[in-house]
Amino acid sequence: MWGDGDGRVNFSIGNARVSYANLETHRMTVTENGRVVAVYPISGGKPTDPTMNGVHLVLDRSSVVHMTSASNGVPASSPDSYDELVYWDVHISDSGEYVHAAPWSTDSQGVQNVSHGCINLSDANARSFFAFSRVGDIVLVGGGPRPPEVGDHGVMDWDTAWNEFTPANAILNVPSGISFVH
User: Fold this and answer.
1) Neighbours of 140 (CB within 10 A)
2) Residue 167 has pLDDT above 50, yes or no
3) Which H or E element spans position 124?
4) Fewer beta carbons within 10 angstroms: which end of the chain, N or C?
């Protein structure tokens, strides 16, 4: 349409689906069009492997992902290594962060952060979140020590300060009643 005069394009967008993962309260509030549809207890990244703060995008979804610690630089010989088939995976960053089922951490969900950087849910909650999520949905993560990484396609443009694009200032709009730290 470039250079063709008065070009018009019609399109529609889906519902606004935004989830708020609070690493301090260990809760994720899931909303659709501003209405809370679920609140899940979570476990985020432990202090040595913190989950990245910031605005994440759902990049893709997979019912099962083979996750290994070697892909994150932790050798198989390490006591912190893992090699798991992980279910109900919602991929939210290029650095390998997912929202997924973690039946091994259900005792920590809602209590403390023990993951290798992912957001852990119970199997039932992960299955529900997986069914709800669509590519392009937003997952806001806050309350942790790790800042957004420049160059991560899941977070980079969303977490670039607006004044770096223009002289204006951007404001993060979190609906009232949702406990969220950014």
Assistant:
1) 21
2) no
3) helix 123-132
4) N
* Total residue count of the chain as it appears in this document: 182
100: annotated active-site residue: yes
Q: What is the pLDDT of residue 91?
A: 96
Angle subtended at Cα 61 by Cα 60 and Cα 62, rounded to the nearest 5 degrees: 130
3-state secondary structure 126-180: HHHHHHHCCCCCEEEEECCCECCCCCCCCCCCCCCCHHHHCCCCCCCCCCCCCCC
Q: Is residue 56 annotated as part of the catalytic site, yes or no?
A: no
Answer yes or no: is pLDDT of 2 > 90.
no
- Does domain 17-165 fall into CATH 2.40.100.20? no
The confidence score (pLDDT) of residue 9 equals 79
Amino acid at 178: I
